[in-house]
């Protein structure tokens, strides 16, 4: 019986190959440094991935600047649109408030007229006087203004002439009587003042010459000329 041949000491034994890839060295307890490949020599062909050719950086920078300018312009346009929208909403809100206030005050104008007539006839006394004055104070705080006085120049934009006449006491078309006062809020007229107006008498601007005076002088001159003849 023969024994199987054995391998010599110089021969390699066949079997599994074990590679230690642990990051912690079991003997020293230190972290092993990963093996890195040597960098390619400068200028060698097949450079590292991600390398860009000369001039590529300039093109990328120009593209980024263009995109940044476009985004900045978009943001500026959006901001301008928002500002315009905010101003329009604020303007509409103020207009709606003024319209609502004008509608309420228009309903109170007849009451204020009654209070004014009672004051003119010395009938605004007692509790009625307190209520009337309180109502006038509240409407005044809301911006309601009463206007229309005798002697002021006639303005067709705020006055409504119900009566017309001539007077030697005025030098321009003026208000001679206020039949119904006007009311406004700021520059907005709620109701024009209804007034009587008077214009200067015809011929009053000619220096005050008496009508017919010129004719009398001509008659005298004509009579003297006939006597001389």
From TrEMBL:
<feature type="compositionally biased region" description="Basic and acidic residues">
    <location>
        <begin position="8"/>
        <end position="33"/>
    </location>
</feature>
<comment type="subunit">
    <text>Homodimer.</text>
</comment>
<dbReference type="GO" id="GO:0006457">
    <property type="term" value="P:protein folding"/>
</dbReference>
<feature type="region of interest" description="Disordered">
    <location>
        <begin position="196"/>
        <end position="229"/>
    </location>
</feature>
<dbReference type="GO" id="GO:0005737">
    <property type="term" value="C:cytoplasm"/>
</dbReference>
<keyword id="KW-0143">Chaperone</keyword>
<keyword id="KW-0346">Stress response</keyword>
<dbReference type="GO" id="GO:0051082">
    <property type="term" value="F:unfolded protein binding"/>
</dbReference>
<feature type="region of interest" description="Disordered">
    <location>
        <begin position="1"/>
        <end position="64"/>
    </location>
</feature>
<keyword id="KW-0963">Cytoplasm</keyword>
<dbReference type="InterPro" id="IPR000740">
    <property type="entry name" value="GrpE"/>
</dbReference>
<dbReference type="Pfam" id="PF01025">
    <property type="entry name" value="GrpE"/>
</dbReference>
<dbReference type="GO" id="GO:0051087">
    <property type="term" value="F:protein-folding chaperone binding"/>
</dbReference>
<dbReference type="GO" id="GO:0000774">
    <property type="term" value="F:adenyl-nucleotide exchange factor activity"/>
</dbReference>
<dbReference type="InterPro" id="IPR013805">
    <property type="entry name" value="GrpE_CC"/>
</dbReference>
<dbReference type="GO" id="GO:0042803">
    <property type="term" value="F:protein homodimerization activity"/>
</dbReference>
<protein>
    <recommendedName>
        <fullName>Protein GrpE</fullName>
    </recommendedName>
</protein>
<comment type="similarity">
    <text>Belongs to the GrpE family.</text>
</comment>
<comment type="function">
    <text>Participates actively in the response to hyperosmotic and heat shock by preventing the aggregation of stress-denatured proteins, in association with DnaK and GrpE. It is the nucleotide exchange factor for DnaK and may function as a thermosensor. Unfolded proteins bind initially to DnaJ; upon interaction with the DnaJ-bound protein, DnaK hydrolyzes its bound ATP, resulting in the formation of a stable complex. GrpE releases ADP from DnaK; ATP binding to DnaK triggers the release of the substrate protein, thus completing the reaction cycle.</text>
</comment>
<dbReference type="InterPro" id="IPR009012">
    <property type="entry name" value="GrpE_head"/>
</dbReference>
<feature type="compositionally biased region" description="Low complexity">
    <location>
        <begin position="44"/>
        <end position="63"/>
    </location>
</feature>
């Amino acid at each position: 019986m023969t024994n199987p041949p054995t391998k010599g000491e110089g021969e390699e034994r066949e079997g599994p190959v074990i590679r230690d890839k642990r990051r912690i060295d079991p003997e020293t307890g230190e972290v092993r440094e990963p093996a890195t490949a040597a960098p390619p020599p400068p200028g060698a062909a097949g450079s590292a991935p991600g390398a860009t050719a000369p001039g590529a950086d300039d093109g990328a920078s120009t593209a980024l600047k263009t995109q940044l300018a476009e985004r900045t312009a978009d943001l500026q346009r959006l901001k301008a649109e928002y500002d315009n929208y905010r101003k329009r909403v604020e303007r509409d809100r103020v207009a709606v408030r003024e319209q609502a206030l004008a509608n309420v005050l228009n309903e109170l104008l007849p009451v204020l007229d009654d209070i004014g007539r009672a004051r003119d006839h010395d009938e605004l006394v007692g509790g009625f006087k307190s209520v009337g004055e309180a109502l006038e104070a509240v409407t005044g705080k809301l911006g309601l203004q009463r206007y229309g006085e005798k002697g002021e120049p006639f303005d067709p934009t705020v006055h409504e002439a119900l009566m017309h006449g001539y007077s030697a006491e005025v030098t321009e078309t003026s208000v001679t009587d206020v039949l119904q006062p006007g009311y406004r809020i700021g520059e907005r007229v709620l109701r024009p003042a209804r007034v009587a107006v008077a214009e200067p008498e015809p011929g009053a601007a000619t220096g005050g010459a008496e009508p017919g005076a010129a004719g009398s002088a001509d008659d005298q001159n004509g009579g003297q000329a006939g006597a001389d003849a």
